[in-house]
Amino acid sequence: MFGGVVTRDARRLSLYLLALVLAVGALVLAGPGTGSAGAAAACVGRPTRTIVFATGELRLYRTRSYVCALAVAKRSGPPRPMSVSLQPRGGRAAVTAGRFRRQAGPVTVHALNRCVRAAATVDGRTTATGWILC
Predict the structure, then answer these.
(1) Using one digit for the tens of pLDDT, what is the confidence trace for 18-43?
(2) Residue 4: is it exposed, middle or buried by C-beta count within 10 angstroms (0-12/13-18/19+)?
(3) Cα-atom radius of gyration of the chain, to the nearest Å?
């Protein structure tokens, strides 16, 4: 009888230690702030233009040599069709399209000394620019 109690306590202690080691390992591998880091660092550069339309907005950011674009819905909700495209003059358009809850993108193109054209779609409503940031 005494041997069964020690075995049960030892098993309980080993399960507790295993759970503790797994929890610490998950924190070390994932890091404490991985959930919100992606949202804050979507586009690098300074905000250049924001074009507001019925269901969202097209945000443009610029560094010396790159332009970045995001399509952001006015309200977060169930996944809906969204797209954002960015094209440097004389180059191919970079496009991100799919079903997203809040934002499509970021899309980045090299645009040193070049104009760019941007477009965004959220829930079937579209906005587009001409050649801008020349």
Answers:
(1) 555 455 444 434 444 433 344 445 89
(2) exposed
(3) 24
